[in-house]
Amino acid sequence: MSNGVDPGQLDDQQLAKELEAIHRTRHTTFLHGSDDALQTHDERMAELEAEYLRRHPRRSIAPGRTRSGARERGGTES
After folding, report:
1. Rounded to an integer, what distance in angstroms lies between the CA atom of residue 21 and that of residue 6?
2. Which segments show compositional bias classed as Basic and acidic residues (predicted)?
3. What is the spatial distance between Cα 69 and Cα 75, in angstroms, rounded to a whole number?
4. CB 50 within 8 A of CB 22
5. pLDDT tens digits for range 32-48
């Protein structure tokens, strides 16, 4: 485990708050963080996202966020 509380120990509200915070800081960490900071950020983000997906395997998927949806709107995903 990287830094922080084990995501499995967070309640749903805490998990959502942690995910919002880590996504909010992602771009700055990627552009300006040290290699160690980026590695720690990657690990923590993966832990939090994995826990969210474990709890919500049937989460709502927006059609435009799929490959076929992107092709329909003229995207370049394949």
Report:
1. 16
2. 69-78
3. 8
4. no
5. 999 999 999 999 999 99
